């Protein structure tokens, strides 16, 4: 098989940092850029290829940085542009790329553009946002609902019109159909590219183009099978008109052309946050000629029934859609992020080890969420410490995102080494740091941290894993998901057990193998695949001979 030379964003592994929660350098209880810089040695040792930083831009923090009031600066809470430059230089010196968050759908209501826009109907920036007259009876212009609950429209007394906000009312949607908006927002990309960033994670990327007529969304018939996680009120509608209008592809082509122009120097990358689970539809976001975003995020491993048949079906769906539509496209997988409950809490700590092995052996770029390399659990957040607006607006639905945003657990000291012991961190540090922390796990040869490291090292040094083909393996028990990754003559069999049952694996056709790693980190060596024993919650990577 011809071996392609994959770019870093294909063969590498990306590590997501939520800057508020990673490392606090000045003891104000909030993580910052200098804190991240101080932990780059750890990240280099871990063996990741790039970091993606959630927003660190000036923001009133109504949605913790996803409400931006200046796209081209750093919020003083996180540091300065000089701190940013220093972080990028220090990351690059260690061979670590830097991907930043780009939030094109909405600004903060405190952004000077919106302040202008709301001043009068005649203001030159009026059309930078989506303003509409009320209906005759005073109601909002259409039935759209905000992701975080409540109508997606806010009435502005002073000018007698409503403005659209797909998220909080403090996050007014930009009007990407206005050429000046598009031009100005593309300049933002250039600003960060010129500062040396290697790519962008594009927040709710497909929201930026809506139905130009702003038609009502159809009602969603009640169903036991929500498309994604249950999202309360938002699930009442089919989101046909409020996101993902086909015109978005044109914008993505412009973004790609801009990134390509910068890529002559070195490859730049884009990944769109696009929650779409029809895999053909999902694959369309690569662009007909692979000329749109480098990849749409694949959230298939999140909010799925954590069982072998469901996971296998999902992976085959992704592989099938790509091979039919875009044989040259490169997939990706994630287990979690700052919006989802942590994998170790969702599937349990034993399965979390197997899940890490699965993530790091599938075909597609893995993105790790900070702390998952330790098996960090969702934090317990007392009601009076809850911060996330989503959870606060729709209590009781489990939508709050504070639990997965608790500080990184560095050591077993008070506050886990995230901030000084006498400081109150912005969210409480979980009390389990004597077991779940970098310091506690570093010296334990079978810890989750050492498993993550071993898997990262193996993926990096094994073309079959970091760029090879994928083939499902038949003939294993239904509790097991098995597949082969191959590059040239190099073949790796991956066996994953989704249950706490012992499984007998009989694959006589595959003959003998060399077991390279078990998720327990307790065995290796020659195995007979005609009579192989996969223990409870175990994952294995086996070299086929
Ligand atoms: C994305 C972000 C999420 C944010 C929302 C609005 O889904 O991941 O954290 O709240 O967009 O920007
Ligand atoms: Ca700080």
Task: Set down the secondary structure blueprint.
Layout: H1 8-11, E1 14-17, H2 33-38, H3 40-46, E2 50-53, H4 81-93, E3 97-102, H5 112-117, E4 131-132, E5 153-156, E6 161-164, H6 179-194, E7 199-202, H7 248-262, E8 269-272, H8 279-283, E9 295-296, H9 308-325, E10 332-334, H10 343-347, H11 349-359, E11 365-369, H12 389-393, H13 438-442, H14 448-461, H15 463-467, E12 469-472, E13 480-487, E14 490-497, E15 503-505, E16 512-518, E17 525-528, E18 532-534, E19 539-544
Parallel strand pairs: 1-2, 1-11, 2-3, 3-7, 7-8, 8-9, 10-11
Antiparallel strand pairs: 4-6, 5-6, 12-13, 13-14, 14-19, 15-18, 16-17, 16-19
Helix pairs in contact: 6-7
The structure holds alpha-D-glucopyranose and calcium ion (CA).
Calcium ion (CA) binds next to loops.
């Amino acid at each position: 098989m011809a071996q392609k030379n994959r770019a870093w964003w294909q063969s590498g592994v990306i590590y997501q940092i939520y800057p508020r929660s990673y490392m606090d350098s000045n003891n104000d209880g909030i993580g910052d850029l200098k804190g991240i810089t101080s932990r780059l040695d750890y990240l280099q040792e871990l063996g990741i290829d790039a970091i993606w930083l959630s927003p660190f831009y000036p923001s009133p923090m109504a949605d913790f940085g996803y409400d931006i009031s200046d796209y081209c600066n750093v919020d003083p809470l996180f540091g300065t542009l000089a701190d940013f430059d220093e972080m990028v230089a220090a990351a690059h010196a260690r061979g670590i790329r830097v991907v930043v968050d780009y939030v094109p759908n909405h600004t903060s209501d405190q952004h000077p553009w919106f302040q202008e826009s709301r001043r009068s109907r005649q203001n030159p920036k009026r059309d930078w946002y989506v303003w509409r007259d009320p209906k005759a009876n005073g109601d909002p212009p259409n039935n759209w609902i905000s992701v975080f609950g409540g109508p997606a429209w806010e009435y502005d007394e002073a000018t007698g019109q409503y403005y659209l906000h797909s998220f909080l009312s403090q996050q007014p949607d930009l009007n990407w159909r206005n050429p000046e908006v598009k031009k100005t927002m593309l300049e933002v990309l250039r600003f960060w590219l010129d500062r040396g960033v290697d790519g962008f994670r594009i927040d709710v990327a497909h929201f930026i183009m809506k139905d130009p007529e702003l038609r009502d969304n159809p009602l969603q018939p009640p169903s036991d099978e929500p498309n994604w996680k249950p999202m309360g009120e938002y699930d009442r509608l089919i989101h046909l008109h409020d996101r993902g209008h086909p015109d978005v592809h044109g914008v993505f082509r412009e973004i790609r052309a801009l990134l390509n122009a910068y890529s002559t120097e070195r490859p730049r990358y884009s990944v769109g946050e696009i929650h779409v689970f029809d895999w053909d539809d999902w694959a369309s976001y690569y662009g007909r000629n692979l000329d749109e975003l480098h990849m749409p995020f694949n959230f298939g491993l999140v909010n799925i029934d954590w069982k072998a048949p469901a996971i296998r079906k999902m992976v085959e769906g992704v592989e099938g859609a790509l091979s039919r539509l875009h044989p040259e496209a490169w997939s990706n997988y994630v287990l979690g992020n700052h919006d989802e409950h942590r994998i170790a809490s969702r599937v349990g700590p034993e399965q979390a080890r197997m899940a890490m092995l699965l993530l790091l052996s599938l075909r597609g770029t893995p993105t790790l969420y900070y702390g998952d390399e330790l098996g960090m659990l969702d934090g317990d957040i007392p009601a009076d410490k809850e911060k996330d607006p989503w959870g606060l607006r729709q209590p009781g639905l489990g939508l709050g995102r504070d639990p997965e945003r608790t500080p990184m657990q560095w050591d077993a000291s008070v506050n886990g080494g995230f901030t000084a012991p006498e400081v109150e961190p912005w969210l409480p540090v979980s009390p389990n740091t004597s077991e779940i922390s970098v310091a506690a796990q570093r010296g334990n040869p079978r810890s989750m941290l050492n498993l993550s490291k071993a898997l990262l090292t193996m993926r990096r040094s094994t073309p079959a894993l970091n760029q090879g083909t994928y083939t499902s393996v038949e003939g294993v028990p239904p509790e097991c998901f098995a597949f082969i990754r191959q590059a040239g003559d190099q073949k790796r069999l991956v066996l994953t057990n989704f249950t706490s049952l012992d499984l007998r694996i009989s694959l006589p056709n595959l003959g003998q193998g060399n077991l390279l790693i078990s998720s327990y980190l307790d065995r290796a060596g020659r195995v007979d695949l005609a009579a192989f024993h996969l223990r409870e919650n175990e994952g294995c990577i086996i070299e086929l001979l």
